[in-house]
Design a protein that fits this description.
The complex is a heterodimer. Chain A is an alpha/beta fold. Helices cover about 40% and strands about 20% of the residues of chain A. Mean pLDDT of chain A is about 90; it is low at about 90-95. Chain B folds into three domains: about 1-35, no CATH class; about 55-65 and about 290-460, v583 domain like (v583 fold, Alpha-Beta Complex); about 70-280, Enterococcus faecalis V583 domain (Enterococcus faecalis V583 fold, Alpha-Beta Complex). In chain B, helix 3 packs antiparallel against helix 11 (about 275-285), helix 8 packs antiparallel against helix 9 and helix 14 crosses helix 15 (about 445-460). The longest helix of chain B is centred in the middle third of the chain and has 24 residues, at about 190-210. Classes of the chains: A alpha/beta, B alpha+beta. Strand 4 (about 110-115) of chain A pairs parallel with strand 1 of chain B, so a sheet runs across the interface. Chain A: It holds the Pfam family Ligase_CoA.
C-alpha cells in the first residue's frame, strides 16, 4: 500500500533528506523523501508513485509498504528523523536566550521555568512559558490575584502546573527548586501551600528515616476562596498518578473552609491516601502532621520527642516571649501554639488576629513575633534566609531589652539559604544571658550540614530543636506558661 | 498527562541568580536567561494576558510561511496602480514636503523632472512646496519602494502575486547604485536613465515575462539566493543573475539585439536589480498575515527619511511612528557620517519577512561592506530568533545547519528582550541631489514598538 504526503514550502537539503529516506526505507518496499525537483519527481514515478501537482519547493514523502502497520511506522520514522535533524541544527546554532520559553524550547524532558523576576513582571514570563508548554514555578511575590487565576486557568487548559506565585519551595524528582533541603528519596509525596512548612515537614520525615517522592509547592494563596485550590487539585491528581508516590501529605497555612472541604472531597475519590495537615486553631501543627505520616507508615522512631527533656529546665524567667523568624509558616505555627497556651494576645507583623498587629521595627512590650520574611520586610532586601543582618540586629536588641524573657528563632538550611547561618548568629547568641530556643530546619546532607550548624549554635548557648513546635513548647515552659 | 513528575527535569531560570546557582550545585543542567525588565508597562502586561494573542500569532506565522510570490507582469504604474498624473507614491509612513528629508525631496524633484511637470529643480520645488502633488505611501497601495521609494505614473513596475491569497504587490525597476532617483539625485543622467528604463527596459521585461509559460517563482529564487551568499537586502547578486538566467532567453526572442544587449548589461551589472523583486515578494509574505485580531506580529517596517513607521497584524493599517535613526557603517569615497541622512526606504520589508539583516549569517561576503565581521553576522541572526514567532524553512541558512530564517517579529518579544530588529541598509546623502553615500546597519526606534503595544492594548476585547 502507498501513501504520499506533500509539504508545500518545506525545505531540507538533499543530503539530510537522503538520510531520512534511508532510515524510513528499512522494512518497506520503497521510500522517497525528497524535494519535488523534476529529477525527484521522475524518480518517484519510476518507483511507482503517482504524485499530485508539485513545485520544486515542496517536500515529497512517499512510502510503499506491505501493510498499514509498517506504513505508519515508516511515516513515524520520517517525522522522528526530520525532528532530530532540526534539533541538531538548533543545538549547533544554540543562542543565548532571553526568555525561559525560548531557552527551554531547545531542551528535552519535562520543562519548568523558575521565575524570580520582580513580581510586576513575573506574569509576562509565566504566561509565555505556559504558552510554550512549560510548567512554571513563580518564586516572586506581588503578583495580583487576577493574574494568578488567569495563569492557573491557562495551565489547567494545557495540562500544565503553576506553582506559586510566592512559592518558595519545591522538590521535583529529587531536584530542589528555590529553598529546598536535601532529603532522601522515598514514597511520600508532599503538597504544600507553604514554603517553610514544606521544608519543615520534609526535614522532620528525613530525620525519622522517611524519604519523599516529590514536594509540589502551590504558593500561599492557592487555597484562598478566590484561587479556590486550582493548583492544589492538579497536584493531587499528579501525585495520585505518580508511580513513585504511595502516600500523599498536604500541608498549608489556614485555608478557606470551603476550599479545604472541596480538596478533602477530591482526596476521598483518589486511589491513594491523603493526610491533611492544615495549620490553624483547630488544625494540627507540622510536627503532628509528620507524626501522622509516621503512624500511617508504622514508623515509631521520632528523634524530636526527647528534645524538650534534653534541653533541661532553665527555671521560670520573667518577661515575655519574643519570636524572631525567617519562615512565615514557622512563625505562624509558633504563634498558634503560644496563643493556645498563654491565652493572651501574641503581637506580630503577621498577627493571628487583626488587633494584634504591631510595627516590626518598633520595640515590643509583651509577647511578640516578627516574621522577617514578610513581603513588607523584604522590599529591596534579600530574604532573611539569605541575609541575616536585620534579624541579628533585632536579636541583639532583644537580648538587652529587660521586657524580653525568652527568645525563639528558626534557622533554615538547604539550597538557596546562606551557607553560614550558624556562624552569622553565634557571636550575638553567645552574649545572651536569656535562654534562646532555635528550631533548626535542615538535614545532614544540606550544603550547610545540619550537625555542624547544630554544634555551632549549641556551643554559642542556644537550645537547638528539630521540631519548631517542640522548640516553641520548650520556650513557653521556660517562661513558666502552664501546659 | 503532564510529564512533570515522570520525566527528567529541564529547567530555565529568570531572575535571582542564587536560585540558578542552587540548581547548578545540585548538578542539574539549567539555563539562566538574560532577563531584563521589559518595556511597555501595563500595555505589555494586558497584551500578554490577551488570550487571542498566542493563537493569532501562530496563525500569522503560518500564513507568512504558506504565502508565495510569482512575477505575473511588468507594466507602468499608471496601469498597475491606477496612479494618475500629479500622484506620486513614496517610501515609509505618510509625509508632507515640509517635513521631508533631503533625499526624499531630491527624489520628488527628480520625479517632477522625469514626468515633465517642471523644467527645473527650482520650479519643481515651488510646486512641491505648495503641495501641488498628491503624496501617498507605497504601502497604502500594496506597493513597496526602496530608499525614497518615489513612484510616478510612467515608471514601470514589477507585478507579483501570492497564489495563496491572490494578493498582488508592486515595485519599480531598480536603477542601479550611485546617482539615482531613489537616493535623492536628480541630475540629467538620472532622468536620462529613467527615460531609457521607461522606453526600452520596461517594455522588454514585459515581453520576456509575458512570453514565459510559467511565472517566475520569486520566492523560490530567494530561497536559493539565501544559500548562495545573498541576504536579499544589501546583497542580491546571486538573485539578480538567476533572474536574468530565467528571463533572458525570452527577452532575446522578443526584442532587438541591441536593446537586449544593453538591458542584459544593465541588469547583470547591477547587483541590486533583484532587490526590487525581493521587496514585493516580502510584502506579499507579510501581507498574508495582516488583520488578524490579537496578533502582535509586525507586518510593515518602513521609513521615509524622517519617521520610522511600523504596522502590526492586529492593528490593521495604523502606523506607529518614531524618529528614523542614522545608520552606522562604511562610507563611499570621501563621505563621512555627517553626510548621511536618517534611515529611509520600504526595503526594511525584507527584515520584516525574515531576510536582510535577520539573515545576515547567510551573507558573510558583505559583512565588511556594512562594517561588521562574520561572527557579528552569526550573532545578529541568532539574536533575531529571540524576537521572532518562528522560523521559515523555505529560507534555510546554510551556516546555521539550514535553520530557517527568523520570521514574524513579535512586538511583545521586542519589548521584553529590548532587542531591536536589525536592518541592513544603504545610506543616502542628507543633502538633496547627493545620491548614495554608504551602507550600514540601523535599527528602528523603540518608540515605534511602545506605540504599537499601546495600540494593541486598546484593541483588546
Amino acid at each position: 500500500m502507498i501513501r504520499i504526503e506533500i509539504r508545500p514550502g518545506f525545505y531540507r537539503d538533499s543530503v539530510s533528506l537522503m538520510q531520512v529516506s534511508q532510515r524510513a526505507g528499512v522494512g518497506v518496499s520503497g521510500a522517497l523523501v525528497a524535494m519535488a525537483t523534476p529529477l525527484n519527481v521522475e524518480l518517484a514515478i519510476q518507483m511507482g508513485f503517482v504524485l499530485p501537482p508539485t513545485s520544486p519547493n515542496d517536500l515529497i514523502i512517499a512510502i510503499d509498504a506491505p501493510n498499514e502497520e509498517s506504513l505508519s511506522h515508516a511515516f513515524d520514522v520520517v517525522e522522528e528523523v526530520l525532528d532530530e535533524q532540526l534539533r541538531k541544527s538548533r543545538e549547533q546554532s544554540s543562542d543565548s536566550g532571553f526568555t525561559p520559553a525560548r531557552t527551554l524550547g531547545r531542551t528535552q524532558g519535562a520543562g519548568i521555568a523558575l521565575i524570580s523576576v520582580p513580581g510586576e513582571f513575573a506574569f509576562i514570563d509565566a504566561v509565555d512559558a505556559l504558552e510554550n508548554d512549560m510548567n512554571v514555578m513563580i518564586f516572586s511575590d506581588n503578583v495580583t490575584v487576577q493574574d494568578e487565576i488567569l495563569l492557573k486557568d491557562i495551565a489547567i487548559a494545557r495540562d500544565l502546573l503553576v506553582m506559586g506565585p510566592d512559592c518558595g519551595t519545591a522538590i521535583i524528582g529529587g531536584v530542589g527548586l528555590g529553598f529546598a533541603n536535601v532529603v532522601s528519596p522515598g514514597s511520600v509525596g508532599i503538597i504544600a501551600a507553604s514554603g517553610t512548612g514544606a521544608q519543615h515537614l520534609t526535614t522532620l520525615l528525613d530525620h525519622a528515616g522517611i524519604g519523599i517522592s516529590h514536594c509540589i509547592g502551590l504558593g500561599g494563596r492557592d487555597l484562598s476562596s478566590a484561587v479556590a485550590g486550582r493548583s492544589a487539585k492538579q497536584a493531587l491528581a499528579l501525585l495520585d498518578a505518580d508511580e513513585h508516590t504511595d502516600l500523599i501529605v498536604f500541608v498549608s497555612k489556614p485555608a478557606a473552609p470551603e476550599v479545604a472541604e472541596s480538596l478533602q472531597n477530591v482526596a476521598r475519590a483518589m486511589k491513594k491516601k491523603v493526610i491533611f495537615g492544615l495549620l490553624g486553631p483547630t488544625g494540627s501543627d507540622i510536627t503532628e502532621t509528620a507524626e501522622k505520616v509516621l503512624d500511617e507508615l508504622g514508623v515509631t522512631h521520632r528523634p524530636w520527642v526527647n528534645e524538650v527533656a534534653d534541653a533541661g529546665s532553665t527555671g521560670p524567667t520573667g518577661g515575655s516571649l519574643r519570636g524572631l523568624f525567617a519562615g512565615g509558616t514557622l512563625c505562624d505555627e509558633a504563634m498558634l501554639i503560644a496563643s493556645k497556651r498563654t491565652r493572651v494576645p501574641i503581637f506580630s507583623n503577621i498577627p493571628l488576629e487583626k488587633e494584634w498587629l504591631i510595627d516590626p521595627f518598633g520595640p515590643a512590650t509583651s509577647h511578640a513575633f516578627i516574621d522577617f520574611g514578610d513581603d513588607a520586610m523584604t522590599v529591596g532586601r534579600a530574604h532573611p534566609m539569605i541575609d541575616s543582618k536585620l534579624r541579628t540586629e533585632r536579636l541583639a536588641k532583644e537580648i538587652n531589652d529587660p521586657s524580653c524573657g525568652v527568645i525563639l528563632m528558626d534557622v533554615v538550611l538547604g539550597h538557596g539559604a546562606t551557607s553560614t547561618p550558624g556562624e552569622e548568629l553565634s557571636a550575638t547568641i553567645s552574649e545572651s544571658s536569656k535562654p534562646i530556643f532555635i528550631s533548626l530546619i535542615g538535614t545532614t546532607l544540606d550544603p550547610q550540614n545540619f550537625e555542624r550548624q547544630k554544634a555551632i549554635l549549641a556551643q554559642a548557648g542556644a537550645k537547638v530543636f528539630l521540631s519548631n513546635a517542640y522548640a516553641t513548647h520548650a520556650a513557653l515552659d521556660a517562661l513558666g506558661v502552664p501546659r | 498527562m503532564n510529564k512533570l513528575l515522570s520525566e527528567s527535569l529541564a529547567t530555565a531560570t529568570a531572575g535571582v541568580s542564587l536560585l540558578h546557582d542552587a540548581l547548578l550545585n545540585q548538578g542539574v543542567s539549567t539555563q539562566a536567561v538574560e532577563w531584563s525588565p521589559p518595556l511597555g508597562g501595563k500595555d505589555l502586561h494586558d497584551v500578554m494576558a490577551d488570550q487571542r494573542r498566542s493563537v493569532a500569532n501562530e496563525l500569522a506565522l503560518s500564513k507568512m510561511l504558506n504565502s508565495g510570490a510569482v512575477l505575473v507582469d511588468v507594466k507602468p504604474a499608471s496601469e498597475a496602480l491606477n496612479l494618475g498624473r500629479g500622484e506620486f507614491l513614496h517610501a515609509g509612513p505618510p509625509i508632507e514636503w515640509s517635513r521631508a528629508s533631503g533625499p526624499m525631496r531630491g527624489a520628488l524633484i527628480a520625479a517632477m523632472l522625469y514626468e515633465k511637470m517642471a523644467d527645473s529643480a527650482e520650479a519643481a520645488e515651488l510646486i512641491l512646496e505648495k503641495n501641488g502633488v498628491a503624496l501617498e505611501p507605497c504601502h497604502h497601495r500594496g506597493a513597496v519602494g526602496p530608499m525614497a521609494g518615489v513612484v510616478t505614473p510612467s515608471m514601470w513596475m514589477f507585478e507579483l502575486q501570492d497564489p495563496s491569497t491572490g494578493n498582488k504587490s508592486w515595485c519599480s525597476l531598480n536603477e542601479g547604485l550611485g546617482k539615482v532617483l531613489r537616493y535623492g539625485a536628480y541630475s540629467p543622467e538620472v532622468i536620462e536613465r529613467l527615460d531609457w528604463m521607461r522606453d526600452v527596459l520596461g517594455p522588454l521585461l514585459q515581453v520576456g515575462v509575458r512570453a514565459r509559460e510559467e511565472h517566475i517563482d520569486v520566492r523560490a529564487i530567494i530561497s536559493q539566493m539565501i544559500q548562495m551568499g545573498d541576504e536579499g537586502h544589501n546583497r542580491n547578486r546571486a538573485g539578480t543573475l538567476m533572474f536574468l538566467r530565467d528571463l533572458l532567453p525570452f527577452m532575446i526572442e522578443g526584442g532587438t539585439s541591441s536593446d537586449v544587449a544593453r538591458a542584459a548589461r544593465f541588469v547583470g551589472g547591477n547587483d541590486h536589480f533583484f532587490l526590487n523583486l525581493v521587496m514585493p515578494a516580502c510584502k506579499l509574505q507579510t501581507r498574508a498575515a495582516e488583520n488578524i485580531p490579537g496578533s502582535t506580529i509586525v507586518t510593515v517596517m518602513a521609513r521615509n527619511g524622517t519617521d520610522f513607521g511600523i504596522q502590526t497584524s492586529g492593528t490593521g493599517n495604523e502606523w506607529f511612528i518614531g524618529p528614523a535613526q542614522t545608520p552606522h557603517g562604511l562610507y563611499l569615497g570621501n563621505y563621512t557620517a555627517d553626510d548621511a541622512n536618517p534611515d529611509i526606504g520600504d526595503s526594511a520589508i525584507t527584515e520584516t519577512a525574515g531576510i536582510g539583516g535577520f539573515s545576515m549569517a547567510a551573507a558573510p561576503a558583505i559583512v565588511r561592506f556594512i562594517g561588521g565581521s562574520v561572527p557579528d553576522a552569526l550573532a545578529t541572526t541568532r539574536r533575531m530568533y529571540e524576537i521572532c514567532e518562528g522560523e521559515n524553512p523555505t529560507f534555510g541558512i546554510p551556516v546555521l545547519e539550514f535553520r530557517g530564517a527568523p520570521t514574524g517579529i513579535d512586538v511583545t518579544r521586542v519589548l521584553r528582550t529590548g532587542i531591536l530588529p536589525q536592518i541592513n541598509t544603504g545610506m543616502a546623502g542628507k543633502v538633496a541631489g547627493t545620491g548614495q553615500v554608504g551602507a550600514g546597519l540601523v535599527t528602528p526606534p523603540m518608540e515605534a514598538f511602545t506605540a504599537a503595544i499601546a495600540g494593541l492594548a486598546t484593541r483588546i476585547v
